Amino acid sequence: MINIRRMWQPLTSTPFLATAAHHEILPCESLQRWIRCFWGGIAGAGASPTRIIPDVCADLIYHIDETAGRIIQASFCGVSDVCGTAHLPMIPGHTVSTFAIRFHAFGAYAFADDALRGTLNGFESPEVRFGRLDRALRARLLELDGLPSRAAYAQSVLLAFQCRENPLMETAADALLYHRGTATVSAWAHELFISSRQLERLLGEYWGMTPKKGSALVRYQALYQEICRGTLNNVQDAVARYDFADQAHLCREFRRYHGENVSRFFKTSCENGRTMEKNGVYPPEEVST
After folding, report:
1. Is 212 in the same domain as 115?
2. Which of 21, 100, 108, 162 might form a disulfide with 46, Cβ 3.0–4.6 angstroms?
3. Residues 175-211: tens digit of each pLDDT
4. Which domain holds residue 129?
5. Residue 186 CA: distances (Å) to CA of 147, 177, 183, 191, 230
């Protein structure tokens, strides 16, 4: 079932954006079960406050003052369950860039030095839980120029890393994604041959969230992906496919995580999708080799 994790591609609030301010590069196939992408860009080159939605990912982010040749801010942002806005740091007269690694929620633990308990909606220095990886990245990050070269270097570091693997947690991720977050916690635990209490303890340690929260975020993100890709056309189909109690339940959940009415989003997504397909503006995917 490992292909399920490789096929899982969470989307941000701007899933088709590719500009100098924000661009994404997919990792090699060997890393795709843990890492969603490398991303970054140049602040000021079309940059604006970015709307953040739950993408079931955690990010290791470096903001770099290219003019002064120094890292001005580094942070680990845990999985988020809220909709908000992010602002890129700006220094007048300086060129500021961003380089980041976006981990799947179920993949960050493989490269962490410590448990991820308490990282939900967290914002902390990489040294706290990713000291070894942070030191390896800082060793050459400043001497490399541009997102592609930094992504290639980061990939080489990650491939050489001694990962913290846990087969049970990988199976838990497979089951969660297979059911698109619709299975109950007890059913999920039963599928893993453990108790619900054990599942809660393990997910808290390895993913930084409860099973209930993980299921809710995956269900929202799976629904969001289908709407964006045009494989769901109306609210009634979404209610049935994702086991919501009724339309009101779906609307509450979607507004909670997306900050928007789901019926309106269905309409605008269809219109935007047709426009982008007609104009051929879907950005080509890049893969780091």
Report:
1. no
2. 21
3. 999 999 999 999 999 999 999 999 999 999 999 999 9
4. 2-160
5. 43, 16, 8, 9, 32
